[in-house]
Amino acid sequence: MGSLRVLSFIVCLSALLAATGQEQVGGLEHRNEQRIAQRPKALVRFNSWAERFATAPDANSRSRMLDEGLALAKVRRTTFLELMKKDPATALSATIAANARNQLPAAITDELEVPVAGIGDLLVRCEIPPQGSTTAGKLQRQVRLNGRTYIASVYGRRVAETTKFNIPIHGVAIGDFLAVHENVLAELDPVEERTATEPVTDVIIGTDSSTSSGQPRFARLGGTIYRFASQEHLQRS
Description:
With 237 residues, the protein is of the alpha+beta class.
């Protein structure tokens, strides 16, 4: 039995490395523009409705749109969950921003993915295949975060990660399923910048602010907000 476990570990590790190689090749093709083009129609239809809802002239107009929006949101939820499992990078690029979410009624937002972030554990396990099998056991990933345990879907550099404890993790969740962002920094949008309550730490030291272009940008790492000199500075970090 011991030798079987060792063999299973080796086969599982080989599968992990193979998946990493495939992900690195695929990563070159998954640019933001391509991710937008790959978004399922259910997501595009909901986004179109949300834009119309936000620009509706009055409360009565918005009220008449609710049934349509709720139906679209339910279809989007099912589609988005499948996208989280199959292509978490595209799912994360399609998540509803905080400023758009804040303009939607609770009945709609209850159907949307939930942003989650914090310090947690990434657990990577490999199923032991039946005795005599030459196929690799399936990789299983879970995330323990903020008192919950999620089934996790990863991409990019996260594909190569083995079990890690007490690391920064952020992504979006639907129920018990979590799409994990490959970056440890979670960039904040303007609404999140204004409403964030965590302490802010400057990381502008070492940069010449006179040569930095654009406005300062903020990103969350665990329970701390970091302020960068510019978008370029954030992207280099």
